[in-house]
Amino acid sequence: MFKTMMQDILFPWGKKRELIRWIALLLMAWDHWAAWTDPGDIWMRLPGRVVFPIFALFMGASLARGFSVWHYVKRILPFALIAQIGFIVFFYPTYMGRPIWLYWNILWTLLLGALLTDALRRKQWLTVPAYLFLAFFVDYGIEGVLLIATSTFLALSLNNAYEHNANERNTSKHKTNERNASKHSTDEHNTNKRDTSQTTKQFFPFLFTIYLLNLTIVNFSGFSADSLILSFGAWLIFPLMALVRVLPLGLPRGPWWVAYAFYPAHFVLLYIIKIIVQ
């Protein structure tokens, strides 16, 4: 019962997933505005604590059902490069106490998280240290990169999701995009998915506990009251996603690139507003 509930809440599909995606994107824009106007106001920053965990869950669900990691890389990389320009311009000269040149935006976090997860599932241990080292330079750091891995393994432990996901993928009008990845890569990922799923599905309690721990520390910066509020603010994904699940609302899925394009585009919009305000 609990596993089924978590599966339905944390890994939605169809119109519910798209609605949550756009809620997260709008909260992201709000959080970046709050970070510029009043970074010390934790109540303005609190809603944004759910954004990255939602993105991590969505990527984890896709990786768990065998979506090609290199297909993700080809999709994300151009937008990550473009967005980094806007990220530097908007937050120059520092962000989160670090020189902006040494702080890579959230799309790099998603990219590294996908690569790390793939390496762990394939047991390519030699590449893991390199990904963990690079994680120190991205938004949300090593905790954020690991959250994508824990989200993926959590999705794998909810084994019933895969029959549902496979059926939806077969009937989706976007299945053509899935076939663009090479057959060899797809076969490898599908085999890897089945093997990992069999291994992880019996460890759901352990994996869920690890996920909650990772979810808590992804926003952790100290033991002050403000820091702890922001840390546990990530847990707001549970009531938010549960609320969306029961609401008679949803959004149709648009082109895959729109959500990625929104990221660099929102920096342009915020920068224009910033100039007007100043």
From TrEMBL:
Keyword Iron-sulfur (UniProt): no
Region (Disordered) residue spans: 167-196
Keywords: Membrane, Transmembrane, Transmembrane helix
Transmembrane segments: 20-36, 42-64, 76-95, 101-120, 132-156, 203-221, 228-251, 257-277
Highest taxon, organism lineage: Bacteria
Any matching Pfam family: TraX
Keyword match Membrane: yes
Name recorded for this polypeptide: TraX protein
